[in-house]
User: Fold Asparagine synthase (Glutamine-hydrolysing) from Methanofervidicoccus abyssi.
Amino acid sequence: MRSDVPVGAFLSGGLDSSTIVGVMKEFTDLHKLHTFSIGFEGKYDETPYIEEVVKAFKTNHHHYYFKEKDFLELIDKYCWIYDEPFGDYSGFPTYKVSELAREYVTVVLSGDGGDEIFGGYKTHVIGYRMDFIRKLPRILRIIGPKIPVKMNIGGLATLYLLKKAFKLSLEKPEYFYSRSLEDCAMRPEIYKRWTIEKLRYCLKKGCGKFGEALRIFDLLHNTLADKYLVKVDRASMAHALEVRSPFLDYRFAEFSQRIPTEWKVDLFKTKKLMREIIKDILPEKIVNRGKQGFTPPLEDWILKERYLNEISEKVGILKEIDENLYKFYIEKF
Assistant:
């Protein structure tokens, strides 16, 4: 591993960042490699998985628990860091882990792009399922949306989603994002036109396979370009830290296009080929774990009175921007 400056790695305990660290052992002494992670409170915490990887590779690890006080300190900084409205609140802990890393190194490697390359998101599985549903007799797919079940009813939530999937299967595949769950999401016309255009292109590149099209959509348009890469770049550069993402090497992207969809996902499993490749590199507990987002318990914190009052006040600003958007948030709030 060639570098003129100290290099470390972000380590979330997921497949992607753990794989990066596991492969780095071929190029550097892991005992001297600085790795960095963030822990959260309760169900959001990935610390046990992180500890599993650190135990396996014995890196020089640095861990920080992101708590509500950290969130409070960063609220006013957030708009200065991102310089625009930015809805991914994992940017808060990303800022903090970048701050931690900069104390020891000037460059870190991250696992960004692994999900987009190898098919790691639940939506990729959903796309595979949609292809399966579209093969069912049309009469069944017409009857399916008439299932008498409503949203938010506990154990029947899966049945509600199946009902919606039957309805979507009657639409053209490129209408997936513009027509899905319309009763609980605000989707402006410009968003609908944009997603239809981009998904149509991705379907062409994915040879008509919808699961593959959704993966390409994420790779080119949805999760990386204006979201995760922006999040990491702004948060890290606020500390003069450079982040490099090996999975986004163009050779990986080209390789991914040649991997059959069924080797990436099936009706239940993501990253099938990747799990097979890394099974001798990572602990079994990591290889077999599911996807978990880098998510602080923000939805719990902002329900406290101090935040609710401010949110109620700020939502009023939307009325001057878009009346329909304002009404939508008032109903949800």
